[in-house]
Amino acid sequence: MSLYKEKHIQYIKSLDTKHQDYSYWLTEHLRLNGTYWGLTALCILNAKDTFVKEDVIKFVLSCHNEDGGFGAFPQHDSHILSTLSALQILLIYDSIDELPSIDKIVEFITNLQLPNGAFQGDRFGEIDSRFVYTAIQSLAILGKLNEKVVKGAIQFTTSCQNFDGGYGLGPGAESHSAQVFTCLGTLAITNRLDLVDQELTGWWLSERQLENGGLNGRAGKLPDVCYSWWVLSSLAIIGKLHWINFDKLREFILSSQDEITGGISDRPDNQVDVFHTIFGLAGLSLMGFENLAPVDPIYCLPVDVSCKIKRWPYSDTI
Amino acid sequence: MDDLSKRQRRLRDEQKIQNYRALSSKVLENKVNRLYNDFVFKQTTALLAENPEFYTIWNYRRDIITNHYVPSLPQKELISLFEEELKFIMFKLKDYPKVYWIWNHRRWTLENHPVANWEFELKIVSKLLSQDSRNYHGWHYRRSIIKEIEKSIGKSLALQEFHYTTEMINSNFSNFSAWHNRSKLIPVLLKSKPTTEFDDVLSFLKKELYLLKNAIYTDPEDQSAWIYLRWLLTDDIFVTSISKGDYIEILSEERANIKELNELEKDDNNGLDNNWCLKTLVTIENLLIRFDDKNYQEDVINSLKKLIEADPLRKNMYIDRLEL
């Protein structure tokens, strides 16, 4: 089986033209995130120019709110998730300087941090280790990490660690592959992977692979293509990518493609979407298959984009 | 689908899109104008009924409650507004049990409820977990409700929750969410010792291992119990609170049990080892090498070599361990 590269490019290109579909309008609240998923997928497919840069940047800036954050669509409220997507897109296009005020964004993000180091997603108080990662990567892209933010983020992230080597969405929560990715990502960006029991975490992650080659998110659950990213990137971050079987996972991802419409779904024969398309492609890229552009497991950005991010600790603050 | 029904569907969709977009832009415009009243509140209900993932509208709804209803309604009416809100959310959760935004709104609603009934909420989440016993949000929500109740009654509910996990595990040994929660409650209970069951770490550990033996014998392929067993045999909570002699005895007993189970499995599977038995034997034998100078190096190497063949998905992990 092979990767239908051209089909996937056409599929991603077509996403913004589906105005006749009701679901197009029901998913406005994910549009900015979706644009990041689509653009990153195109970069991985070496087809970055499929999107018109000026149009995308214009759209991103139209989602910028007065409070400094970004909503997922014009007039939608700011949230840390859509804020990171905006920054990732601008970084891919080398256009961070298009932002009217970096300080305002930094203020929006740092104001979301709570006394225990966690981040809430917006002013309404939902707490999740995903938001810590999202905030930390956002600040890293802007080159605006600082001691206080980093210290709190590390403290909260380590409190999400479980006996099995995995991490949950908060202290006490069950291990979940997606949360493992965000927690390891936070610790990698803040340069504290020494706090991870890498043998144990690697073992738990490797046990996510099932006989059909797919990866699951928790013990006893079904496989899903998106875990090709959450599990693989986590293994890559701790240098244990080879602890699962590449050929079988590749087969699972490829068999979840739609050969007619393009795109990848959560598992074979299901409806495709851009979320599973990017994470399937990113997984294949991490394993070095199909001549895809290399992707950075910490940032989920093409390596030639993530290399522009200033590494913590900043030499000028020491 | 034939052409006629395709056309009909398209027409229907067009109408739906038109209505949705009209309502959505009206609500967003009211939001920009900071309108907070009964009329716009009902509009958000209609919009969220259509699209419960529209987080901005949940935000607006909360702002309407805070800025309009809370300052204007008498206590009794305010309470019934919050009760209605909880019903509306429950209705949505039934169709969308995995949508973060809805769970988040439920948490907010309870936290801002003038007289939140957390006990009732616990019943609701118990019912949800009885229907969907691995729901990640459900378990997380349950822990936060327990925290709230503990705060209000000034008493720990760890024992009650421990019994709840036993119940869940007994009805399904593969419920890892329950094993996980148990691992969070045991340290609390071994410290607070609410009943004699928790007085002595060693006898507690033995009882727990017995429960686990049942689970493992019931389905030796299921990883939940094996992952939990690894915890019981390695965590400092147990290891440092029992004597070295007792620890070594426990490890040796478990080793014998698992070897016996593996033999039974081999009889059933044409002489093939059970992978989880091999993996766990490696863990236990490594512990016995470390704590009792046992000469199990050969056994560990043999098990790892077997696993390279028998568990090819994770072959490279075993190779790395052989080279350590």
Describe the structure.
The complex is a heterodimer of chains A (318) and B (324). Chain A has 318 residues and is mainly α. Chain A has one domain (5-310): Alpha/alpha barrel (Glycosyltransferase). In chain A, 46% of the residues lie in helices and 1% in strands. Chain A has helices at 5-14, 22-26, 31-44, 53-62, 80-92, 102-110, 129-142, 147-158, 177-189, 198-206, 227-237, 246-254, 274-286, 303-306; strands spanning 295-296, 301-302. Chain A has a two-stranded antiparallel ribbon. In chain A, a hairpin with a 4-residue loop joins strand 1 and strand 2 (301-302). In chain A, helix 11 runs parallel beside helix 13. Chain B is mostly helical. In chain B, 80% of the residues lie in helices and 0% in strands. Chain B is built from 16 helices and no strands. The longest helix of chain B is centred in the N-terminal third of the chain and has 30 residues, at 3-32. Chains A and B meet through helix 2 and helix 10 of A and helix 1, helix 3, helix 5, helix 7 and helix 9 of B.
Short descriptors:
heterodimer, A: mainly alpha, Glycosyltransferase, B: 324 residues, mainly alpha, Rab geranylgeranyltransferase activity (chain A), repeat (chain A), Terpenoid_cyclase/PrenylTrfase (chain A), transferase (chain A)
